[in-house]
Amino acid sequence: MAEQEGDAVDRVGRYREIVRRLIEDYASIPAAYGDIHTEPVIDPVRDHYEVVNVGWLGQERVHGTSIHIDIIGGKVWIQYNGTDAPIADELVAAGVPREDIVLGFHPPHLRKYTEFAVG
Questions:
Q1: Close Cβ partners of 41 (under 8 Å, ≥ 6 residues apart)
Q2: Rounded to whole angstroms, how far apart are CA atoms 47 and 58?
Q3: For a tag site, which of 12, 16, 95, 113 has the least CB within 10 Å?
Q4: In terms of pTM, does the model score above 0.85?
Q5: In what order do the strands lie in the sheet with 35-43?
Q6: Distance of alpha carbon 46 from alpha carbon 77, whole angstroms
Q7: Interatomic CA distance for residues 71 and 12, integer angstroms
Q8: How far apart are CA 87 and CA 67, in angstroms?
Q9: CATH homologous superfamily, domain 5-113
Q10: Which residues are bridge partners to 72 per DSSP?
């Protein structure tokens, strides 16, 4: 049976909340060194979520994303995970089914070999 439109909206709303909490949790972890701040970037209108690191490490400027997640077509796309944390497994534990998680950092032809969605 096809998913009802209201069910899809509710499902994506739950995914937004799960991803928002995950991003805020990771952004609250202070950097281990340097004068680096972690900032959550949360755009629930465009379904774009990131943890951005901004600051200085000695004389070197630091500015980059450590986690990037989008919600596209009702699925949670992990676009980038620059941490050692198993972000996909954390999403599963929070209630996102594996078939609704895409490891976007893997080439499309290799995604079929993962435990997650291909696209």
A1: 23, 48, 49, 50, 51, 52
A2: 34
A3: 113
A4: yes
A5: 35-43, 48-57, 60-72, 75-81, 101-103
A6: 13
A7: 8
A8: 9
A9: XisI-like (3.30.310.110)
A10: 75
pLDDT per residue as tens digits for the range 74-112? 999 999 999 999 999 999 999 999 999 999 999 899 998
- Long-range contacts: 64-67, Cβ < 8 Å, 24+? 66/26, 66/38, 67/22, 67/23, 67/26
Return all residues near 43 (Cβ < 8 A) that are at least 6 apart: 49
44 SS3 class: coil
Separation of alpha carbons 91 and 76, rounded Å: 9
* 10-34 burial code (b ≥16 CB/10 A, e <16): ebbeebbebbeebbeebbeeeeeee
With vertex at residue 41, the alpha carbon angle to CA 12 and CA 34, rounded to the nearest 5 degrees, is 140
Parse the chain into domains and list their residue ranges.
5-113
Q: Do residues 72 and 47 lie in contact, with contact meaning Cβ atoms separated by under 8 Å?
A: yes
